[in-house]
Give the backbone structure.
Amino acid sequence: MAEAVEIIRRPKLSRNHLSPSDYRHLSSAAMRARCEISRGPIWVRDAFTHCVCSSCFMAFEIREGFMDAAAPEARDGTQFPLAVDLDRTLIRTDSLVEQFLTVFCRLPWRAAKTLLKLREGKAKFKEAVIELSTFDPDVLLFNEDLLEYLHAERERGRPLHLVTAADQRLADIVAERVGIFESASGSCQGHNLKGKNKLNHLEERFPDGFSYAGDDVSDLVIWRKAKSAVLVGVSNSTRKAVKAMDCAVELDIPRQKAGLRAWARLLRIHQWSKNILIFIPLILGQAIFDPRALLPVLLGFLAMGLAASGTYTINDIADIASDRAHRTKRRRPIASGAIDAGHALMVAMALILAGVALIGTLSLSAGGLLLLYLAGTLSYSFKFKREPMIDIFILGSLYTIRIVIGAVLAGMTFSHWLLMFSFFFFFSLSMAKRHVEIVNAASGSDRVLPIKGRGYITSDAPLTLCTGVGTNLVAILILSLYVAQDIYPQNLYDNPEWLWGIVVMVMMWSLRIWFLSHRGVLNDDPVSFALRDRTSLIMGAVVVGLFALSVI
């Protein structure tokens, strides 16, 4: 005999109203009580009060009594061993998709060869992918709601087994990392443990019955034979199909859908501000109000934004592992699991194709330059971001290509002085971003440490400081020569002497960026930082005013 419960329904709560302490079971009959609406287990915060259904969040009050402990178990099937799937169930992502895409970004040709293994079956493909991957279990995104439930079931003595279509080696690593499973079964020797194959395995392994935790429509064939089900992020149609079966639902954990805000963060819409550089030739040539010159550049701005968003997304896919280990980058949509890496890749490819097609209709030369830009940014993401100095060279070049594209779309000749200034200036700003990463990594430690995901070490700080400040001063010198040797002879400006004030403001702002970088407080890309920094905005307004005075 064990303690029984009398359940009194209370008003429905929402997940937002629950603190982490609500997600706790008691080792008593209350733990085995079921919600009268969803049949989900009731989780208890205090002794027998402040209880809530883990599925529908209906609040309950539980009163003590006595009953046979086996009675509720017989009704809901929780006395049977629970087999747990891995992808999008125990973890919130698809391990195969992420592993393949990560390998493809690192070793594209070898990753492409693994696709040939699909002719021998999906299990062989999984084996080939995991042999190329450097899997780190510490970067897995576990489903905390499910893990909490599994730990509680384990505490009351229920057998738990990891049964997944992922490769057997991956299943073993995850089972060892979690530490609550009595066994781990995965795909191996050409046998893909999914759908009917998984069902046959479970029926052979557990002839007296089993429960199953899964997420996919392919799991329906398993739930038809299971004694009870744990649903994790299933679709509405799958949920209805399960509830129509003779299979009690122990727990139903909804999947958090990515909203527009998550997609906007992934696509880096705010980074489109960098593409304003394509308007520089129009502004300096005083053709900003010429519709024939302005319209192509506006469309080019849109095309570059679409393509850039695609490359930012691919960069995040390539950096999944390093981002999850980073203090702030782990909150990015793909790294946090808010957006699936496979879905993100499809969107990225569509955006890149749309951008190239749009700008190609405006100018084949501009289209070729955009392809060059894409080649540079993707080679940076896949390879050169880990090569010291080469990474900064590529970043400086990408900014300069934007200006060239703007000149081509506007049909204007571009100044070589301006292009040289652009390269050295943005080389310096890119170095400032790298320098602050080195400074922050070196703080609090006397040891020489590598910068994760980069090719630098903490002792490189003096080199990046000298190189960055030096190229910044070279950029200011070139800007002065641009004003004296290029702008003055053209007689485009009525009062060109005001432009010297712009040279001074650019020098003051860039040196301030380096000052903040060396102190380790520049917490963002310098261009993005300037758009949120009050001092930078004031200095920008002064630059606009000085330019206006020069043309009046």
The chain has four domains: 2-69, 82-253, 257-414, 416-552. The chain is about 55% helix and 10% strand. Strands lie at 2-12, 42-44, 51-53, 58-67, 82-84, 160-167, 183-187, 211-214, 228-232, 248-253. Residues 1-32, 45-50, 62-75 have pLDDT under 50 and may be disordered.
